[in-house]
User: Which sequence fits this backbone?
């Protein structure tokens, strides 16, 4: 990054190749699998990195600085898409479930998880997603979110607990719906 | 209310990173706070399900956008300093490589018709058309080879994708693709070159080039793709090349597994 600041802009290509996947994964999860928005958001992050390269002082870690920009880019995105909460959910996947078919069952669980994630607030989703990025330490997540490491850990725990409650509610609701329609015999 | 010193251990508990004694201590504390042990298991399952979310590979289109933006930004870095550009003839200096191709072909066709109009063509019409098609193809190949040398990865990507427009690739195009596969600084361009070469897998020099390129790859994506191709082609000459790669102690674990499997299958 020091070389980029010194004017060797093409070195940004090395940083791009190294971090494009974790950044894309971050936005992909944050937007609920929206490919186009994830691509746009990654592009915006690198554009901002080039524009505001001198704001990287070299005192903190580069990854923290990068995800701080990503975090702010995500906030801007959700401000613009406030009403939609922009979390994509494929329709109709809850119907016609055959519990004896493993692939369909897995697909059903993925769909329920996606719905459950969509019911979290964007900042709640984000704390879970940041916790899943291998190259980020909890201390760095705390700095990105302007809080303490201990607070990040308890927020992740509480949000996962909330996610679990929502997940079970959706699962039970869809099961009850299927049962009243006589479509499934659920295994034990 | 969870004690402050235990808060820091909650994520380690979910990730299974605590010692049995520490885990017992945290679980007991959580139970006292009204969170039973079974609930922790459910939270762990949900956390694992989030981990298992399928994330697709970023699209090549995203790379194109980034490298195009990077090229533009490079030009802005030193606005006072004249940027080095290779000397070009006047009309071409205004065009992008894509437009240069179109302009070149248009000029060639115009010239050919002008020659015919002024009675310079003395060969039969059928042969003239065949000659024209051949000349256009040659021109296109030359431009593809030129674009493969461009500094911008998006231009090189465009050059590689243009190869699929050719009915048949001549050996210079094949050599160009093999050169990109072995030397390009961008792994996405290498991957595209690899996919372009598969179309010509029946050509012996392509197979030779693919086998020889195994040792030149460091990107796990390119290595895995090459492994799949070698299995599909049942190319046994790849075995010693993969065995050499497997000797590298820093090799990615996923790639190591895959290459070991490929060696086993091909042997």
Assistant:
């Amino acid at each position: 990054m020091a070389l980029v600041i010194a004017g060797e802009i093409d070195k940004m290509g090395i940083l791009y190749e190294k971090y494009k996947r974790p950044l894309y994964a971050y936005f992909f999860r944050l937007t609920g699998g929206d490919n186009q928005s994830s691509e746009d958001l990654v592009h915006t992050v690198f554009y901002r990195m080039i524009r505001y390269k001198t704001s990287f002082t070299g005192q903190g870690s580069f990854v923290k600085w990068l995800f701080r920009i990503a975090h702010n880019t995500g906030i801007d995105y959700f401000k613009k898409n406030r009403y939609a909460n922009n979390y994509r959910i494929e329709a109709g996947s809850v119907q016609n479930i055959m519990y004896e078919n493993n692939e369909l069952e897995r697909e059903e669980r993925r769909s329920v998880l996606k719905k459950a994630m969509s019911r979290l607030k964007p900042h709640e989703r984000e704390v879970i997603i940041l916790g899943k990025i291998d190259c980020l330490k909890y201390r760095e997540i705390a700095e990105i979110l302007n809080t303490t490491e201990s607070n990040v850990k308890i927020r992740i725990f509480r949000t996962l607990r909330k996610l679990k409650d929502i997940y079970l509610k959706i699962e039970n609701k869809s099961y009850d719906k299927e049962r009243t329609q006589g479509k499934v015999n659920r295994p034990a | 209310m969870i004690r402050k010193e235990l808060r820091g251990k909650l994520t380690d508990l979910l990730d299974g990173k605590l010692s049995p004694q520490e885990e017992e201590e945290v679980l007991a504390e959580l139970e006292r706070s009204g969170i039973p042990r079974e609930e922790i298991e459910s939270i762990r399952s949900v956390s694992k399900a989030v981990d298992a979310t399928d994330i697709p590979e970023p699209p090549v289109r995203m790379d194109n956008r980034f490298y195009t933006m990077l090229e533009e930004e490079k030009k802005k870095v030193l606005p006072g300093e004249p940027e080095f550009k290779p000397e070009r003839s006047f009309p071409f200096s205004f065009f992008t490589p894509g437009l240069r191709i179109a302009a070149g072909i248009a000029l060639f066709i115009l010239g050919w018709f002008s020659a015919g109009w002024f009675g310079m063509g003395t060969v039969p019409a059928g042969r003239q058309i065949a000659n024209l098609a051949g000349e256009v193809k040659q021109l296109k190949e030359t431009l593809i080879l030129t674009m493969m040398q461009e500094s911008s990865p998006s231009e090189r990507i465009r050059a590689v994708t243009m190869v699929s427009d050719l009915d048949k690739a001549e050996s210079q195009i094949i050599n160009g693709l093999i050169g990109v596969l072995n030397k390009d600084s961008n792994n996405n361009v290498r991957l595209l070159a690899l996919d372009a070469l598969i179309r010509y897998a029946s050509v012996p020099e392509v197979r030779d080039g693919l086998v020889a390129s195994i040792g030149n790859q460091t990107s796990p994506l390119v290595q895995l793709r090459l492994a799949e191709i070698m299995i599909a082609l049942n190319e046994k000459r790849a075995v010693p090349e993969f065995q050499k790669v497997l000797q590298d102690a820093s090799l990615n674990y996923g790639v190591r597994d895959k290459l070991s499997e490929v060696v086993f299958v091909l042997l």
In short: The radius of gyration of chain B is 29 Å.
